[in-house]
Write a structure and sequence with these properties.
This protein is of the alpha/beta class. The chain contains 14 helices and nine strands.
């Protein structure tokens, strides 16, 4: 296998096919060499038309897609809220990717990449099997900290990472059978944060922190008060916000659920227009959605104000 390739992995079912395609396209639009990006998609129930659109979009941008077939459905895994079982597929990446693939970047389907993925690929993991970005939504919350202490045994000062952006050394994953161990933990416990909790339990004290800009989630992007109150987290958040490399719509407010709104989801709409899903009906609201648009707009205005005041 060509060692000059950058391997990027997604996992999706039919419901996330469009959003995966947007995330993939954002990667290819922001790299100097899309021909060096090898895209892999774990197919957890994609239809033939979805696969065609994903592949056609990648080809139009100068890349290619390899679809990976996972084993039988992960029915034993706990799901809740907006999560689907497709999220657990990342735990099998070391087994599903060809043995010649020694390193991979895993990306969730609800994010946008704004910088060249080569920069993330080049990060030194310091001999560790996993690189990830600290999750300030968890780390800034006293309630979440108590939860993680009870569920994972994490002490208040221990970091916790978000699993939406991962850089994995697959040689070490395979040598330690880490995927199987993570799946066993995920199946054994009905953890509040699902496979993310399983990964944090498995890699506790043994993961490399990646720069915050590579996974900017709403508590950072919108500068939640709980983040602003903590000096070290506040300073890191303000720095990341000035130069976002990955904007991750983690949580319940997804960009495709709302009309085009400058400053909130206009970038999603713009990248969507570069894909084979460009004519998809938009927005795509979820029944019972409890995240009104006005709240997103107010939060972003307040965050921009804090950015100007504190920078």
């Amino acid at each position: 296998m060509d060692e000059s390739l950058i391997h990027v992995l997604f996992a999706a079912d039919e419901g996330y096919a469009q959003h995966l395609t947007v995330a993939m396209t954002s990667v290819l639009l922001h790299t100097a060499r899309p021909d060096r990006v090898a895209v892999h998609v774990i197919d957890d129930g994609l239809g033939a038309e979805a696969r065609r659109k994903i592949a056609a979009t990648a080809e139009a941008k100068g890349s290619r897609v390899d679809f990976l077939t996972p084993p039988a459905a992960a029915d034993d895994f706990y799901v809740s809220a907006h999560l689907s079982r497709a999220a657990y597929r990342r735990l099998s990446m070391a087994e599903l990717l060809p043995p010649a693939v020694a390193r991979v970047i895993y990306l969730d389907g609800d994010l946008l990449v704004r910088d060249d993925i080569q920069k993330l690929w080049a990060v030194d993991l310091g001999g560790l099997a996993l690189g990830a970005v600290p999750d300030f939504g968890i780390m800034a919350s006293a309630r979440a900290r108590r939860e993680k202490a009870a569920v994972l045994g994490l002490a208040p000062e221990e970091p916790y990472f978000n699993s939406g952006v991962l850089l994995a050394d697959l040689v070490r994953w395979r040598a330690g059978d880490l995927g199987a161990r993570a799946r066993a933990l995920a199946a054994e416990h009905r953890s509040p944060h699902h496979d993310q909790d399983a990964l944090n339990a498995l890699f506790r004290g043994r993961w490399q922190a990646l720069p915050l800009r590579w996974n900017v989630i709403p508590p950072v992007w919108q500068l939640f008060v709980k983040v602003l109150r903590q000096g070290e987290l506040r300073r890191a958040a303000l720095t990341a916000r000035r130069d976002v490399a990955v904007l991750h719509y983690a949580g319940g407010a997804k960009p495709w659920e709302y009309p085009l709104t400058p400053g909130f989801n206009d970038e999603y709409y713009r990248v969507l227009g570069e894909t084979a899903y460009r004519d998809a009906p938009m927005p795509q609201p979820r029944p019972g959605k409890r995240h009104p648009l006005w709240r997103q707009r107010v939060r972003l205005r307040l965050a921009d104000g804090w950015q100007r005041l504190l920078s």
